[in-house]
DinB family protein (Chitinophaga chungangae), 168 residues
Amino acid sequence: MANTTVTFAIPVIDANAILEHWQGHRRLTRKVIGAFPENELFNHSVGGMRPFSEMVLEMLRLAYGGIHGVVDGSWNKAERFNDGAINTKAALLKAWDEVTEALDTFFPQITPERFQETMHAFDNKDWWAGPAYGIIQYFVDNEIHHRGQGYVYLRSLGITPPGFWERW
């Protein structure tokens, strides 16, 4: 099947809708974090995977460093979540909320042209090169993937996770 490009006079989805989609996933992931008992959040794993708290820290680094990188090229902001200071559920949720606010603040600064620019996420030439919109989609996909692992962890603890549709 040949690749076909379809052009629309107006965008199919605008930047505000992309942000709301991402924030909807973040609201659901926050519910998943909240469903974990504190000890299991930082210690429980299945099949040798990382504890869910470590996956959440990865999501925080991608979202916070990513939004700054996409907006102005300052990809190093992700380092903020590498110091080991987030070691309680309350601190993790507080950091989550701070990043949520950062997305609301910085996402609107992405120009329509910037969404189309090719960039190297986190200045890593070997990791991801693509248009800004594709990098943002990766951040959302990564969160969905890790949230799914969180669902498995919760079920293994006998806890029913929030419905996957509960993004509002």
